[in-house]
């Protein structure tokens, strides 16, 4: 693996990425850790997260405001492609990974780091998405993944951190693993591991249960230009505002929930609950619009491209030559 002097670490403020800071310095011999938290519209208060990284030993703590970039350069191309993994999941979490990878690579260049790091374990898709994206953007950067190597349980990781002066406020731990950004939420683990267990209503935040939805429907008119959503009900809106408003309107009617057993990139099946109200309704509307505007042969041929596109997004191949070629066809 070789030694790294200066590392940019993707940082969430959670236990694993916080413990990564002293672990990188003490076990990997890293002299300087710079943390990077990405604001993708997840609604977290990022200033405490920035300060927490500094208190945990980071030399610098960066926060990148990337919400608009996320919508314009990752969500919108995916909507144009009607990208639904396994014809169901609109990739709300997967789309964030190539952007975070790009932010890491850019920060490494700016601060003269010779490596980047993430807190992914060996069980999930994200480790591959980060590793592949970083290698595509800068093959000379080393990628460190302490949590994939340390073999510690969560209590052991916390004990390790405490040895180096970190503190983890005792709070009632959620049995779920949750990821959120402006495009949606993914919820897994805990009681959801058993496919027979119906999800409890408490896990949902962006969508209402049917019993709580309005009695009357809402009509929403979405304006598209060249496959990009640009207006709601005749009012031109910026990308972030459009997604935000649509999440609210659609979510209150209970639309956008998915409960699926998906095939992970690493070869295991995973029960995932998703809430993606705006993204799912935009893809549905865009597909309908295409039925009006595309010829039969283009419509039928594009279906195969959409499947390939969604698999590439899911597998972390956003920056690959084939993905660029598919984008050119879709444009």
How confident overall, as mean pLDDT? Answer: 94
How is the biggest beta sheet arranged? 5 strands, parallel
Low-pLDDT regions: none
What characteristic shape results from the CA principal axes? globular
Order of helices and strands: EHEHEHHEHEHHEEEEEHEEHHH
Helix content: 40-55%
Q: First CA to last CA: what distance?
A: 41 Å
What is the number of helices? 11
Roughly how many Å is the radius of gyration?
A: 21 Å
Question: Strand sequence of the main sheet, in spatial order?
Answer: 3-2-1-4-5
Give the tally of β-strands: 12
- Helix/strand-derived category reads alpha/beta
| Beta-strand content estimate | 15-25%
Tell me what the structure shows:
- The chain has 11 helices and 12 strands.
- The chain has 331 residues and is of the alpha/beta class.
- α1 links the parallel β1 and β2.
- The longest helix is centred in the last third of the chain and has 19 residues.
Layout of strands and helices, then pairs:
Elements: E1 6-10, H1 15-27, E2 32-39, H2 46-55, E3 60-65, H3 67-80, H4 96-111, E4 115-117, H5 126-137, E5 142-144, H6 146-149, H7 154-163, E6 177-181, E7 184-188, E8 222-225, E9 228-232, E10 235-236, H8 239-251, E11 257-263, E12 269-275, H9 277-293, H10 296-314, H11 321-330
Helix pairs in contact: 1-7, 4-5, 8-9
Keywords:
four-stranded antiparallel β-sheet; 18% strand; 331 residues; alpha/beta; 11 helices; five-stranded parallel β-sheet
Quick structural gist:
With 331 residues, the protein is α/β, with parallel strands linked by helices. It is built from eleven helices and twelve strands. A five-stranded parallel sheet has the order 3-2-1-4-5, with helices on both faces. It has a four-stranded antiparallel sheet with strand order 6-7-12-11. A three-stranded antiparallel sheet has the order 8-9-10, with helices on one face.
């Amino acid at each position: 693996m070789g030694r790294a002097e200066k590392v940019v670490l993707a940082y969430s403020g959670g236990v694993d990425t916080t413990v990564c800071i002293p672990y990188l310095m003490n076990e990997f011999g890293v002299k300087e850790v710079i943390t990077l938290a990405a604001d993708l519209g997840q609604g977290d208060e990022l200033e405490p997260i920035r300060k927490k990284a500094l208190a945990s030993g980071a030399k610098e703590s960066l926060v990148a405001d990337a919400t608009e970039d996320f919508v314009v350069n990752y969500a919108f191309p995916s909507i144009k492609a009607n990208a639904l993994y396994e014809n169901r999941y609109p990739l709300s979490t997967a789309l964030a990974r190539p952007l975070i990878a790009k932010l890491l690579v850019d920060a490494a260049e700016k601060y003269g780091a010779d490596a980047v790091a993430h807190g992914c374990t060996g069980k999930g898709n994200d480790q591959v998405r980060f590793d592949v994206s970083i290698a595509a953007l800068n093959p000379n950067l080393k990628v460190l993944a302490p949590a994939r190597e340390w073999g510690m349980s969560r209590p052991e990781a916390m004990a390790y951190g405490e040895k180096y002066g970190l503190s983890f406020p005792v709070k009632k731990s959620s049995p779920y693993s949750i990821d959120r950004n402006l495009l949606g939420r993914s919820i897994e683990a805990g009681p959801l591991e058993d496919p027979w267990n119906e999800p409890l209503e408490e896990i949902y935040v962006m969508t209402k249960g049917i019993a709580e939805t309005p009695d009357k429907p809402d009509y929403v008119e979405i304006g598209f230009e060249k496959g990009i959503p640009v207006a709601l009900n005749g009012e031109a809106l910026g990308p972030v505002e459009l997604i935000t408003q649509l999440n609210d309107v659609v979510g209150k009617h209970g639309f956008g929930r998915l409960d699926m057993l998906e095939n992970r990139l690493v070869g295991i099946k995973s029960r995932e609950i998703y809430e993606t109200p705006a993204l799912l309704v935009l893809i549905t509307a865009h597909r309908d619009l295409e039925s009006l505007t595309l010829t039969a042969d283009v419509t039928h041929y594009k279906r195969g491209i959409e499947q390939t596109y969604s698999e590439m997004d899911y597998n972390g191949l956003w920056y690959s030559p084939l993905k660029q070629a598919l984008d050119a066809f879709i444009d």
